[in-house]
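Handoff note, outgoing to incoming analyst
You'll be picking up this chain. Sequence as last confirmed:
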Amino acid sequence: MNLTKMCDDAHNLFFYANVCHVCKAFSKELPLKRCGNCRMIAYCGEDHQRQHWPQHKELCNVLLQMLQESGISCLLKKNQAQNAKEWSQIKTNLMLLVSIKINRRLLPYEEQMFKFPRSCVICHESESKILKDCQDCPSGSYCAAHRYNTVHSKQCTSLKLCFDLDIATALFTRETPRHVVPFHTEVAYLPNTMKDFIDLYVNENKSLPMSPECRTAYISEYLTRPLSLLYAMERLEFSAKAEITIHVIGANMIEVDGLEVWEILLHWLPSLMVLTIVLIGPELIWDSVTPNVCDCCAVEDMKIHVESCNMLYEDYVSSQWFEKPDFIIGYNTGIHECEDFTSSKDTWVASLRLLAEQNCPVVLTSYTLDESHKEHERLQAVLGESIVHTLCQFNPFSSLRPYRDYETEGVYYQNQFITIYKKLKES
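Most recent structure output, in case you need it:
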């Protein structure tokens, strides 16, 4: 994607160390001029550096002061970190320290300056003068000792796609893909993968200046939630009734975006007439929505109801709004993250016990297989070791949209792994 102009202040939505921060020109296209004070941000020339200075100067002056006080040339020193975990912690600590010194919360792009700094992808050397940038993506740099190392090449294409999608997100209004499945399709089974599904069923407007890879990844982010659920139903041989209720646990505002795409279930499951989706999570806003459906669904009086409940699952179950679920699913919930059951920060123990009481299928997705295993172990710790899953594996209907992971400096995908339970309670 060749970008010559960023509209309004869209360039401040995200940060890449090896592109001009204003116009996002890639370093392989022209030499970049790095800020002479903080050395953390780059521009294609003095014009864009001057243009961005009113926004950058407050942070830059704080970083310059820290450099002068410490008597060093770089705030991130490679010899401080022995592994990826330590490097991640060093970056986080510096970001928090700067936030304290500047006396405000950092903007998203400022946080990314510390999460994704220009450093060697192998040893984290951050001395700007001795680094050489990757010529294929805007996220990789090498010191002299690691210039020919091949580790970065495994992630390079995904990181470039992430960059292109970040630009597209900044420039274009998000639109939910519609009419992606024929009404009451005769196909008995889902295609093998997300890409196969998109190739077969999605006929989107292709006039936007977006590569086929970007378009597929963009669309998949909307489809991954309903398709992951359909995949679980298929694996469990779940028979849909005329009316079904889905509980989405640990939901946040991501689940609210693109509610219309849930119409896929009405089209794919011929017996289904009324689909009720209950989004439950403390980050939500109370709401009740009835998304529009296609003419075929409207003629048959088929409906989708979406309830958004701003509460924990344990509170929802005991509330007047409770509706008995036929299926429960949690997308990237992070159930495993708080390991201390007695901690006041743990909000899952009571909810997990109530999940089991619903006596219906439960599905959990996660970013990594390790997280999936930890989630299962957490369920066993709370509900008993007799809890078994039907499957725990890579999700063929994972999103194809990569996001940068500051801990690994690679990428992650929403719903990349899936764990399916027929139920969480023994009969």
